[in-house]
Every structure is written in C-alpha cells, then in structure tokens.
Amino acid sequence: MKNESLPAFPAMVRNVVALKKEPDFLCGLNKFVDMFCGIGGFHQAASSFGMKCVFACDVDDEVRCAYSHNYGLMPQGDISRLQTKAIPDHDIFFAGFPCQPFSIIGERKGFGDIRGTLFFEIIRILEAKRPRAVLLENVKQLTTHNKKKTLKRIIQSLEELEYHVGWKVLNALDFGLPHKRERILIAATLDPFDNFPWPVVEKPMKPLSEILESDPDPKHYVSDRIRKRRQAAHNSNYKPGIWHENKAGNISSHPFSCALRAGASYNYLLVDGERRLTPREMLRLQGFPDSFEIVCNDSQTRKQTGNAVPVPLVMAGIEGIINVIQAAETARESEGAS
C-alpha cells in the first residue's frame, strides 16, 4: 500500500530536499544538532525544510544503529560526557530531552530523577555554542509538574542565556495524524518576539485505513484467549478502530490511536481488538515516511516509536521559528534603510 501518512509540507518548502543550496527563506538556519535524537523525529522534520544535521547524540545503542542507517550519521553517546568543543557550530538546537521524570509513567520525579538533570546538559551546551534558535520537546505533564515550578525553571534557564521563549502543548491529532499524542514544544530564539507564532492548523485527520497494513504478519495477532476476552468486554463503533486498555483494565476504542508508549503492555493497543500494531504502522502514526528503514527488531522498534516525537509537531515548531527569524531580518533591513 502506498504510504501517504506524512502530512504535506508547507507550500514554501515543497521540493526543498532536492535543492543543493540552502533555501533563502531559512535566513541562515541551515545547520542543526539533534540531541537525545531517538530515531530522528526532529531530523525528519528539519530535513524537510532543507536543513542539514551536523551532530547527533543518544545513549541507546539500538537507536544509534537505526539513526546511522537511515541518516548516514552515527550519533555520539552520553550527552553528559560530551565536550562542547567537539560539537560543531550550528544554527538551531533540537532536543527531545528525557520525558520519564515528568510523565505519569515515570512517577513525576522531575529534577529529582537523574534523567531530569540532563536538561542542564542542554543549558551547558547552549551557553557554549549560542545557536540562534532552540526547539525542545517533552510530555504534556511538564506543564503542571511540581506546581508548574519545573517549567518555570526551564524557561528561566533559557532566559538567563538571553533567549526569548515561547511554549505550547500540541496534539498530533490536530496535524493530520490519527494519533492522540500531546506534547509540549518549547521554542527559544535570540531574536525577540512578542508572542511566538505557533501555526494554526486545521488539517483533517488521516483515516486509519491509510495507516494500517493490508496484510500484516500473523505474528502480530493476539491469542484466541485474549481476543475473546477483549471482545466480550467491549463493543466498538469503529471499523477499523484501535482498542485501548488503560491501567485500570477499562477498554475503549477510537478511529485513531491513543499515545504510543515505550513501556506499555504489549497488548495496550489492539487493532479491532485482534492484533497489535506493526512496527511500520507505529512509525506511520508518528509521521515517519515509509522510506524510513526498520533495522531493529520489533521490540526495539516499538520502544523507539513510543519515545519518538511526531514529525508534524516539530515541523510546526520550526515554521514558527522561521517566522520569528524572518521578522527579525525584515526589521533589521528596515532599520538599515531608514
């Protein structure tokens, strides 16, 4: 089946990937680094605008294998061991920093969890490299963690480096993907803005029928015992639909997927109550094109897609950053002409 799961790029960036020269509309935002890169949700989005990745890092060996295979760049390992001088100069800094310390699943320990302190590795690098723009991603729960003090501390840390900061919770459902996945994006630029220009999106949701494989491997089907138990407990109004069982054992179904989770039960989400999602379907639900090659086993790919950022959300953040930079360039040109 032909995959059309990745939403169309903004009109201004159509065919940009075929260009050899950096597009002028980027206003110099040509090179990016991809920290806590995972399988490259940021990379997919930034490349679609014509940007070039000059550095990536992730502590997970399997992730680095998948990233290297698909993008031709081997990520470095532990960010806390990186020497800032080893990181190339870049225009925009991306990081989907560890979300477990701030999520419900991670018991919301925040900066009390060693993974939470990795945010300050980001600050260490930003202080040394001073990229013009920053885009960070995390779980929605970050907005309320520790009575909102955690998010306030993050914003304050960026502002102390003279960045102007905006943030917003975006949902993949609003960007054409049949995937309910809410994430906070934090955008920061050295150029000032009054209100960060988050794109207004009214994109219809792609139907599940265009995401699901027509002939999935039989290994993805659950046992008769599990199937019968699920179907005895729930009648769905959707075909196809994805059945979701929460931690309390309650079952619901939707014409979209609830959030993919790396550490969830293997049977957390079932297509029509009969089978698990395939690795390719999970990638499509995150906005990855079928040109992304699967090189790890099913278990690792499931973990990787559960940790990934939806590609269209990153594209929205990048579009906002470009608008800020363009406005700043226009203002400078006007001042120079007066």
Report a brief summary of the structure.
This protein has 8 helices and 11 strands. With 338 residues, the chain is of the alpha/beta class.
Q: Runs with pLDDT <50, length 5+?
A: 1-19, 101-108
- Strand order, main sheet: write it out: 2-1-3-4-7-5
Using the alpha-carbon principal axes, give the shape. elongated
Q: For the record, what CATH class of the largest domain applies? A: Alpha Beta
How many DSSP H or I helices?
A: 8
Level of helix content?
Answer: 25-40%
Tell me the number of structural domains.
2
- Note the quaternary state here: single chain
Strand tally, please?
11
The largest pleated sheet is described as: 6 strands, mixed
Cα(first) to Cα(last) distance is 57 Å
Second CATH tier, the architecture of the largest domain: 3-Layer(aba) Sandwich
* Class from secondary-structure proportions: alpha/beta
**Beta strand %:** 15-25%
CATH topology descriptor of the largest domain: Rossmann fold
* Overall pLDDT confidence: 88
Radius of gyration: 20 Å
CATH superfamily of the largest domain: Vaccinia Virus protein VP39
| H/E element sequence | EHEHEHEHEEEHEEEEHHH
